[in-house]
């Protein structure tokens, strides 16, 4: 009967060196995103959502439908940009 192979000894991976300090916090890349515009648009969407929820079910459902449709279109555009055409199997 063949014996089981010996357990593998794992060697720890070296960790990347990351410099810390205030000079590196200021130089952090934003990824091409405008933070101020993101905050303002998020607040605006929140105010519109609260108004729709206050108006009633039809307004709330309409708002949610629009938000889900826009999210789907944005997701589709991101997939097309990366040339992802189908789910991996």
Describe it for me?
The longest helix has 25 residues, at 57-81. Helix content is 57%, strand content 0%. The mean pLDDT is 83. The chain has helices spanning 22-26, 35-55, 57-81. Helix 2 packs antiparallel against helix 3.
Q: So what's the oligomer here?
A: single chain
Radius of gyration: 24 Å
Question: What summary fits the major beta sheet?
Answer: none
Helical region count?
3
Low-confidence stretches: none
Mean pLDDT: 83
Distance between the termini: 38 Å
What coarse outline follows from CA principal-axis ratios?
elongated
Fraction of residues in H or I helices: 55-70%
In brief:
The chain is mostly helical. It has a domain at 56-89. Helix content is 57%, strand content 0%.
Question: What topology does this entry show?
Answer:
Elements: H1 22-26, H2 35-55, H3 57-81
Helix pairs in contact: 2-3
Core attributes:
89 residues, 3 helices, mainly alpha, single chain
